[in-house]
Each structure stands twice: as C-alpha cells, then as structure tokens.
Amino acid sequence: MVDKTAVWERIRRYAGSDFRTATDLPFTYAVPGNFLRIAREGREINRSLSRTNFEKAMDAMPAAAPSDFSDRQGPSTTRGRAHSR
After folding, report:
1. DSSP state of 22
2. pLDDT at 37
3. In the prediction, which pLDDT does 51 show?
4. CA geometry: angle at 71 spanning 16 and 3, to 5°?
5. CB 7 within 8 A of CB 85
6. Using one digit for the tens of pLDDT, what is the confidence trace for 50-69?
7. Which of 20, 14, 18, 21 is nearest to 69 (CA)?
C-alpha cells in the first residue's frame, strides 16, 4: 500500500524544482495548499492540480503513459509526480 501522505510531502518538498512532462515540456510548480500551481517558462498556467487528483493517480500505478491518466487533470504532470513515490 502506498503511503499517500508521504508521497504528497515529497511532492511538496520538490516544489520549485525543474521537471519535464512525458512530452519533454519543462515546468515547475508551487504547492500553496492541497493543490499544485503549474508554471511553464516562468508563467503560471491557468490550472491547479489537487492532492485528490494525485491520490487517485497513485491508486492507478504503475502507469506506462500519460494516457493512462486521461481521466485526471494534467495527465503528463500527474504521471510524472505520481512516479516520484
């Protein structure tokens, strides 16, 4: 069983770091609460990804591709961060 609280804390710890989506797009994120705010090229995009979104994605792990999370918000970002466990 995955410790979802530990994974979320790891996601919070890496906020501000540089990442890449499965399609190699660079991004960073902030965690101002129980959600992520994504930024690309220094600009925040108009989307937040909730902690619940990631917890549901963890239940679907392992995932081979972002399309495995097509029912989640931000599948490329979700897959990349869910793999951080």
Report:
1. T
2. 94
3. 92
4. 55
5. yes
6. 998 888 877 777 766 656 55
7. 21
C-beta of residue 49 within 8 angstroms of C-beta of residue 38 = yes
Decide if pLDDT at 73 tops 60: no
Paired tokens of 47: 């989307």
Q: Rounded to the nearest 10 degrees, how much is the dihedral formed by the CA atoms of 44, 48, 51, 55?
A: -110
Which tokens sit at 32?
């101002």
Q: For residue 23, what pLDDT band results from cuts at 50, 70 and 90?
A: confident
Q: Any idea which residue has 């972002």 for tokens? A: 66
Q: Which residues pair with 37 in a beta bridge?
A: 30, 48
Looking at 1-85, list the stretches that DSSP marks H as alpha helix, in order from N- to C-terminal side: 4-13, 51-59, 75-82
| H or E stretch at 45 | strand 43-50
Structure tokens at 30: 């902030």
Note the pTM of the prediction, 2 decimals. Answer: 0.67
| Structure token digits, residue 11 | 């996601």
